[in-house]
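Write out this protein's structure.
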Amino acid sequence: MKTSVFQRVAFGLLALTVATVAAVAPRPAPAADPVPAATLPPYQSISPVRLLGYVRRVYREHRPPPQFETYTLVRKQNTNYGYPDVVNSYTKHYWVRNTDRAALVRMVYRDDTDGPPTFDRPALNQDRDPGPPTADLFEPAHRQPINVVPTPEPTLPAGLKTIGSVVAIGESDYNVPKVTVEGNMLHLVLQPRRDPERNVLRELWVDKKSFVVRKIIAHDRLFAEGEGVYPVKFTYTLGYLDGYVVITHLDGVVLPIEDKDKAGNITERAFDGDGETVTYDFQDITFPQSLPGWYFDPGQYGSHVAQAPL
């Protein structure tokens, strides 16, 4: 999450993002669910941990994302007095190359003019704005500085003949202590087996027939200078666009710090700064076939001012 919202001095863990597709672009919707590539077992016939393995497998069937992606990020938060935080509420346009997550970004000002092109590498779980909408929701949280090029997601080369396949369904990161049925959804409560600051998923809602993910709750942290590290809860709402999972809405709320004294007594310390709650919306999501190469080379921005996208 971006430092200006939560006054971070170090990177945070799992921020999630909202994408509500505007009328000018196809709207991600549950009705556009991708079809699983293989027949799935009834959820009643498998263990909770194995169910999570199938959920992850269905998700992976629709990755990696398209090479190029564009969207508009709308971020809103209030001050600690309950009024809109004008400084830290804003809109940005993004043009992303997903193979290395390089992005050209332009701020949208209140008179509908765009700021100069800047370079970013949007990602989840960082001290900057989250994204892109097709970010990997199951990726463990780890630091990703903007100057570090991430490893591209693997993909099967075209033209190879499949002579056989073996599918292993398992789960090494989480236990699943509870699964409940909520209408047409399954609600999975997750418990990290190790390193809860790396394995940040806490709850999933999935379609009980297709195992398609609908909503996620994940853990993050707010590093408040001079005050300590506050836990943050993010709720993702998901949709589907052209067969790809996209994040359509993100709600974040800062939770109290629990302090324990030598006697084991616990006291809570609430956060009292701006941005106790924050929302992200992703709008106008598209997957263009190509984008100019100079979009992803900040050294060329100065010589392409007249060609900068709007």
